[in-house]
Amino acid sequence: MSSLEGVRPLILNLQRYVRLSDDDKQALAQLHSAPMHKIKARGDVIREGQNPTVVRLMVSGWACRYKDLPDGRRQIVGLFIPGDFCDLNVYMLEKMDHSIGAITPITYLAIPPQQLDALISDHPRVGQALLWHELVNSSIMREWLLNLGQRSAFERIAHLFIEMYMRMRAIKQTQGHSCPFPLTQSDLAEATGLTPVHINRTLQEMRREKLIELAGKQLQILEWERLKEIAMFDPDYLHLDHEGQHLDANA
Questions:
Q1: Contact 221/231 with Cβ under 8 angstroms?
Q2: Ramachandran category for residue 49: left, alpha or beta (phi over 0 → left; psi -120 to 50 → alpha)
Q3: 179 strand-pairing partners
Q4: Can you tell me the distance from the alpha carbon of 30 to that of 8, in angstroms, rounded to the nearest whole number?
Q5: What is the pTM (predicted TM-score) of this model?
Q6: What sections of the chain are H helices per DSSP?
Q7: What is the per-residue pLDDT across 59-102, written as a single tens digit (0 to 9) for each?
Q8: Could you tell me the end-to-end alpha-carbon distance of the chain, in angstroms, rounded to an integer?
């Protein structure tokens, strides 16, 4: 895998916010010199209470941020796909206040904080783009809180399907209205605050209404507009419309 290809999802993500120069892109490609790690599906990347010392950049696979209780109950509070940082500033903490786990086999870069600091110092537009990236992560978390507090089970699942499809489309990993979707029904339950039984019934209902197909870890949205309407999905919180266009590397 070439260095540019390894960070291509990150570059695609950041270009949603600013227009990067070729020099900026080549500097981002240098992140590929950081140590690369592989984690098996369902393995932990780092556990709550451990000391974070690096910034992790997803290269391949899906992972999640989660919190758990002493009795084993778990809540997924975020999802990571290629091009996502697993918390950009987490190395500032003495101890992790959450855990990160692999959903599929994953590959990530363990970037030393000083390497990232030097990149931002030498390439201010990259720093601005990373700030946008973190703002969007906060926006996604607010939307997840709204899902848990106000949307029905049907609406929550529909909303998550559309969100993940749009995030995958932004890094060019979709085909038509289809995208990889490796979450199990248990994962969906932990991400939406529902029981696996409730998830199963809701998915059956979605299939009966011919809204989606979900098989072989692949999601196909059959009725895009209907599903958006049911979920009351407003894409503004994902900030996909190049809102930082005034931060133009080529101006």
A1: no
A2: left
A3: 219
A4: 12
A5: 0.93
A6: 3-6, 8-14, 22-29, 113-122, 124-150, 153-170, 185-192, 196-208, 224-231
A7: 999 999 999 999 999 999 999 999 999 988 877 888 999 999 99
A8: 32
